[in-house]
Write a structure and sequence with these properties.
With 362 residues, the chain is α+β, with helices and mostly antiparallel strands. It is built from 9 helices and 14 strands. A hairpin with a 6-residue loop joins strand 5 and strand 6. Helix 2 packs across helix 3. The longest helix has 28 residues. The radius of gyration is 22 Å and the shape is globular.
């Protein structure tokens, strides 16, 4: 009996050691950002400062890691059955060139980007932000960026590779500081949660001559979070950040892929197999009540609402952009001169369309 007890004790010790080693291995394989931390910032001497009263054109775009529109990725279908895992190197190169040509044509002052890959297996370990900057030219002197998915290896059967994905801000004007803010994370089992996204907000502050600042924020909220309160918690976190800026007296513009519908008729406009991704009462409702927005609620409920659609799903059942899930929000005291969703060549470059807005610097 004593011998059996010793054997069981040894077996249990070995099992505990193996579990501990596995947990340590998982911990070491993934990124562990703090709740608030400095983001990467490059703002060389010679970058001009904003001037009060000048007009500032801002572009926001989820570029879908420059994969183009020729694929249906596994996550593009509700049941995870999309046939594709990654784009070809040729598709990425062509999409990068097309996106850069469009940006040069639009010539925004500030570019807010989501889904930029770096050192990721699905995009052949390239540095997409560096490649993109090389293609658009030297006018955008300042850069800020922050990771929101980073792991040495993701053991998902449709990934099985190293991953790295960023938010980024490119600016023709000086950036004084850049901060990464962690968003609340999606739940799930410990292993899945460990390898999942660490969604974030990237905040960059641009100094204004005379002593002021303008904050620009880019973000990409979770998707596929149905059945829990992840989206509501992420929206609440962003709300607290921009309200903090307002309390500081810092005007702000926040934009990105929110993965949420606007209030009004948007939910009812989608067929059942597409509206399943969203709540009937959007978690963003308070944002439209409190802040300025592009598009406005009138835009998104009006007869020309299709002109404001920003998402063109890769689902083969969807043949054109059919919903708005990307937005600009801004402090209401900021003057918005004009805004639009860019179509044309952009329709073939990403499953999201670029948004362009022109503001007056206070």
């Amino acid at each position: 009996m004593k011998k059996l007890t010793r054997i069981l004790a040894v077996a249990l010790s070995v099992l505990v050691a193996l579990v501990a080693l596995a947990a340590l291995a998982v911990f070491l394989m993934v990124d562990h950002p703090r709740q608030t931390q400095p983001a990467f910032l490059e703002s060389p001497d010679g970058a001009p400062r904003l001037r009060p009263g000048q007009e500032l054109t801002v572009l926001s775009w989820n570029v879908q890691y420059f994969a183009g529109k020729g694929y249906v990725f596994f996550y593009d279908l509700w049941d995870g059955s999309g046939p594709d895992e990654k784009p070809s190197e040729e598709a990425i190169a062509l999409t990068l060139e097309g996106a850069a040509a469009l940006v040069r044509e639009l010539d925004p002052d500030v570019i807010l980007l989501q889904e930029i890959d770096e050192d990721s297996g699905r995009t052949y370990f390239g540095d997409q932000l560096a490649l993109f900057r090389g293609l658009i030219g030297p006018a955008w002197k300042a850069e800020a960026s922050a990771w929101y998915w980073r792991a040495v290896f993701v053991p998902h059967p449709r990934v099985m590779a190293k991953v790295g994905m960023k938010l980024a801000v490119l600016s023709k004007y000086e950036i004084a500081s850049a901060t990464r803010h962690q968003l609340p994370r999606m739940g799930g089992d410990p292993v899945t949660r460990a390898f999942n996204f660490r969604r974030a907000v990237l905040e960059a502050r641009l100094p204004v001559e005379g002593g002021g600042e303008l904050a620009v924020l880019t973000t990409h909220l979770d998707a596929f979070a149905q059945g829990d309160d992840t989206m509501a918690r992420q929206v609440a976190k962003l709300e607290s950040l921009v309200d903090g800026l307002s309390a500081e007296g810092v005007p702000w513009i926040a934009s990105g892929d929110f993965n949420l519908l606007p209030p009004g008729r948007a939910y009812g406009d989608l067929p059942a197999d597409q509206s399943v991704y969203y709540q009937e009462v959007t978690e963003l409702a308070r944002f439209f009540d409190k802040y300025g927005s592009v598009p406005s609620t009138a835009d998104m409920d009006g007869p020309d609402r299709a002109a404001w659609y920003t998402h063109f799903p890769n689902d083969p059942a969807v043949s054109a952009p059919d919903r708005t899930i990307d937005y600009f929000f801004f402090l209401r005291t900021l003057e918005l001169k004009e805004a639009r969703i860019v179509r044309g060549a952009a329709l073939a470059l990403s499953d999201h369309l670029p948004m362009l807005a022109r503001f007056v610097v206070p």
